[in-house]
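Q: I have two molecules that I believe assemble together. Could you output structure tokens for the complex as a whole instead of separate predictions?
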Amino acid sequence: MSKVLVVDDLQSELQLISGFLSKGGYQVATAINGSDALEKAKAHTPDVIVTDLVMPDMSGLELCRKLKKTPATASIPVIACTTKDSQVDQAWAKKQGIVAYLVKPCNQEQLLEAVKSVMN
Amino acid sequence: MTTTQPFPYSENPQPGNGKPVPPPPPSFMSWIKGKSQPSGQTPRPTPESEPEDISTPPKEEAVKSQTLRSRLLLVLLPTTLLPLVTISAVNYWISQNQLQEEQEFILEKTAFNAEELSASFVEELRTDAKSLAVNPLLQQALQSADQEVAQKNLTQIPIERLEEYYGGSKLLQPSTAVNVYLQNIAETENLAEIFVTNRDGFNVAYSNRTSDFVQNDEAWWQGAKADGFYVEPPEYDDSADAYVLPLSTAIQDANTADFAGVIKSGASLEGLNTALLDFLDGTMKDLKQVQIVDPFTSQIIASVSSDADGQVTATPVSEVVSQAVTGGDAVAAVAVDLKEAVLDPTQTPDQLVQTLEQAHNLKKTRIERLGTEQNGFIMAQFALDGRTYAIATIRDTDWVAISSIETADIRSVNYFILFEFLIIGALMSAIAVAIVLYLSRQISNPINQLSAAANQMASGDLNVTAEATGTVETRQLAGTFNNLVQQVKALLKRQQDETERVQLLAAIAQSKDDDDMQVPLNKHLDEIRLKLSADRVVVYRFKPDMSGYITGEAVVQGFPTALGDTISDPCIPPALIDAYKAGRVVPTDDVMRAGFHPDHQQLMVRLQIKSNLVVPIVIAGKLFGLLVAHHCAQPHAWQTEEINLLQAEAEQLGVSISSLAAIEAQTLAAEEQQQRRQDLEMQLLGMMERIEGAVEGDLTARAQLMEGEIGIVADLFNAVIENLQEIAVQVRDSSGQVNQSLNKNEIAIRRLAEKAISEAKEIQKALGSVQSMSQAIETIAQNADEASTIANSAYAAVQEGNQAMDQTVNSILGLRTTIGDTTKKMKRLGESAQKISQVVALIDELALKTNLLSINASVEAARAGELGEGFTAVAEQVGTLAEQSASATKEIAKIVASIQSETQELVEAMETGTTQVVDSTHQVENTKLQLTEVLHRSQEIDQLMRAISESTIAQAESAQSVTTVMQAVTQASKQRSLASREVAQAMQATAQVSQKLQASVEQFKVD
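A: Yes, here they are, computed for all two components at once.
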């Protein structure tokens, strides 16, 4: 069973996304901020990380950069799930190592499709 | 004798019994071609004649600004005058041609007549001479003359003698009767002289005494005898005091018709000239000249000319003979050619024309052969150098008749016709102008009145009417003008209305907001209301949220106003909005029965609306509002025209309002932009606060990733700071490590440097020793060199001494030999002295014996007495001599004895010397031996010294290379020491940099 680490500063979002993924048959871990996510990623080495971008202290983008710089986590694909919807945001995120970009509110289908596609 | 006839001066001469002059052949007449007027009258100018340049056609530009009168003048005058001018020009041209042909005809006719006259003049003279010849009196005289010639055989007598013999009368048989007869003839015929010769050329009779008796040597006589007739050039005759034309004619015997003699007569030139004048007067007309010319000699025979008035005069004979051919040699040459062509009938006139035109540059040449085949002549006409000539060759003579006129004069005759044409043209023009002026005034007066009215109207007075006068056309024009004025009035009214409308719409278009637009919009709506006869017209404007309000209204007084009402109309669903956008029109005839929403119906009631018509106002694809017309008194059935009208008005209104809508949209956009800018500024401020620490070196500072565009910038900054943080940490760690290792290495390097320095010093010392040793070796080498030099010079000195010794030995040995030789010679000298003393002893004995003999002799002599006396004297003499010889011998013996003793002494001395020489020789040889020993020794020394020198040089070289090596080593050592010092310094510098770097990095907060 593939593991997905979900990162979001909002508990409600965390629950929603976790719910989608669980229904999709994934083992889900959650983190409420970037530092937490870094540690959990190192500890559990999930197959995919789904992260919000706008978070206090460490943003999803910084998290992604840090993951890419750490050899143990560099190969984990990172999916952004965020309210930031401009073309510039998406282009910049891709440059920072985000492989798939979902704009909130996103539905289960979109999320699962994205996760599935990045795992292949 | 026959009577003579006067010369035929008439136009149709009738020669007496001569050959008739042939009439002009038909071909000559054909030249006239029926065009010329033989009467010579100038053609009457036609009254229509008109010079061509009396008026010029009007230019197109000028027509536009010309008055009717001048335009009529400009159009009608040329129309009237152009045919006139054309006809005049054609007439002028035809008459010009006719005149020219006539002049040319006259010219030819004149030449023809002159030929005729001249030919008949000559023919007459010949006939006269022939009729004279048959006179019996003269025949008789000739016969008797022939008899006398035969009797006296005069033909065999030389001319000089004949002249002498007949010098008195100059006649063969002077006969007064015949002479008087000839005198009568000369007087009657107006001849200067006349005389006759027989067949031998002797004078038979004369009218006047001649200068010669014998004439057969004269050209004329021979010419007449050969050709039967001979004409000489004119000459002045003193006796007649006139110019004469000498003519010689052969006489035939009356019975045998043989040549019987010659008659020579001098015809008066005056006669020919006068005859020519009379004959041509009336034919010549004006400005011509006729000459009878002998072209071969260019001699003029007769000349007649006419002036401008047609007055014909003959040139006086005295001037004629010295006159030149008119046209000069060129014309004379043409005449000669023509004369020659007469003799060659095979040449056709056309060929002749070609030949002559080429040869003489002639123009307009025409040639015709006339007369009989046996006795023909040529008539030629041509132009040359501005003159037109007609030449006729004169039969039976060398002459031609030349008639000519200046070519320009032919034309000048026609100029006065041109003048007449001009006068008539001017008159015609004046009449035409007068008529045109009258007509134009008739036509233009009503038009002018109309024009005045039009001007009045143009200046703004529309209350003008044109009076209907003049022709039907002008009356019609006045009526049309009045109609026009009425129409213009109506048009102006419409224009005013339209202008007001446009102004209102413009005011709407220029307004900046609803309030600004209110007044013009209401006025405009009122106009629409009037057009529709509606009770109320409103503009309902949508807000962005699709609620709306009434922004303009025109309403009939008495009904409630809707202006300012804000209506949140729930009856307008989005679908209807879209329909409105597409231009949907909603006419409602009775609102109460339309089934509207109750709220909407309530509004209708409040505003007393009975029926309404709604059309959308769409601006740039957006629904701006609705234009609504109401009937409030009673329901109204909307007509298509009304709907169309309101739609058009809505469209027009939309165009006008569009700028207002655009302005409002702009304002909205500007406000939105302002809001965005403020948001951005706020975001920027937030970000600035977050990242302030980074400016102070806090690399742990992070910007908050936010919604909006700044969020990306924030993350961009974060990415940079993250990298920077990593770098700073790396730098801090690395510089620390560098510092540590530097501290360790520094001591080792310092030692190394010191070692290197001491090593360098030692090497330098060693180098010093090597250098001093090298110097010592060099000194030795120098000394050895010197010693070798000295040894060399000693060796040389010894060699020289040895050589001197050898020379001494050789000298001594030579001396010894010399002494030996001398001793031997001395001994021989002693032996020679011995022999001399023996000889002397013999001589002495001889002297003694001689003396004895002499005494004996003297004794004997004394005995012999006197005879012996002489002999005694001799004996005595001999005795004396013997005594003298004995004494000399004694003397010699003494000398020889002394020589012998001296020689003995010398020999002894010689022997002593020889002994000494031998001793010396021994000593020298000893010395030489010793010297040789010295030489050997010094040679050995030299060789030794050389060896020493060579080995020391090699040593010195080795020492030198050792020094070089040592220097290189020293240099290297120095450099090494320098390098290690530099390394030490660099290490220190690096340590300092590393420390500085560490200090700098420590400024950043990275943990």
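A: One point stands out. The two ends of chain A are 14 Å apart (CA to CA).
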